[in-house]
From TrEMBL:
Disordered: region residues: 171-201
Bias (Basic residues): 188-201
Source domain of life: Eukaryota
Protein's name in the database: Homeodomain-like DNA binding domain-containing transcription factor
Source organism: Phycomyces blakesleeanus (strain ATCC 8743b / DSM 1359 / FGSC 10004 / NBRC 33097 / NRRL 1555)
Amino acid sequence: MSNQNESYPTQRTPAEREMTNSLAILHRDMTTVMKDVADIKAKTSNTPVSAVLQSQPMALVHAVASVSMEMNVAGSPTMASDAKSVNKTKAYRLLWKHLWDPKFKSKHLAEIQANNGKPRWNMAVNFNQSPNTELTENLVAYLERNFVGAGLRKSDVCDFVYTNFTSRKRAANKSQAKKKSDNACNRRSSRKKEHLKRRKTAYQSKKTAIDDEIKRDCSGLIIEEAMSVGESDDSTLPHVSYSGLCLCRPGWRSGEYNHFITLVDNKVVADLGLNSHQLLSRAFGETIEGSVSDAIVSQFPQWAFRNGP
C-alpha cells in the first residue's frame, strides 16, 4: 500500500523556470556585490568612504540588486534606449505640427486659416527675447504633458524646442538670401531684355545715320547672344560715386562692332531725352574670352569678329 503522505515532484511551468533562473542570477550578482563591498571596506577602513559603507551596506546591495533584476527580468538597456529614441522622434514631429508651417499649402481655406492661426517664432529677435521666451515656456509645457515621464527628461524637451527655433531661423535666413538673389537675377534679366529692345528700336529709327557712319549695313547685328554681360547692378563703379552697371565685353567682338554698339547706345540715350536718368551708368571692365555661339557665327559678317569666327 502506498503512503498517502508521500509527495511526488511536480512539473514546473516555463514561467516558473524563468523566474528560478532570474533568482539564481540575482543571487549570484548579490554575492558578487557583497564580496566587492567587503573588499572596499577592508581597503578603506580609515576613510570617510568606509563610514558610508558601514552605515548603509545593505542599501547599496538593494540598489544594485534592483538594477540587476530590472535588467534580467524587465528587459535590457537597449530596449529602454530604443523607446527613448522613438519618443524623441514623436516629440519632435509633434512640435513641428504644433507650430506654423511657412511652406504649408492647401486648396482648402479652412486648413490654410488653421495653419495661420498656429503659434510661430519671431525671427526678428533672438531665442531668449520676448515674445520667443513666452512661446518657449508654452511649448515646453505642451511637450511635458505628453512625454516627460515616458522616457524623456525636461532637458530633452527644452533641447527640442531650441533646435526647432534654430532650424527655422536658419531656413528663414536662407529663404531671405535666396529671395534677394532671385530678385537680383530677375532685375538683371528684365533690364537686359528692355535694353535690347531699346537698342533695336534706336537702330531701326536711326539706321541710315548709323550705317553711314559705320559704312556698312548693320541689319540683324543686335541679338542677345552678342551683347555684353552685366556683372553687377548695385555696386559702385571705380570712377563714379553712384551705383552703376559694370559690363564685360565678349572677346570675339571687333573694335568696329564695339563702335557700332556704342553708336546705338548713344541713340538710345538721345531717344530717352529727359528720361535718360532711368538708365544705370554703364562702364566696361575686363574682356571675356570664350567660344562664339552658332547663332553669331551664322549671322554675323567677317568684320564683326576680332580674329575671325
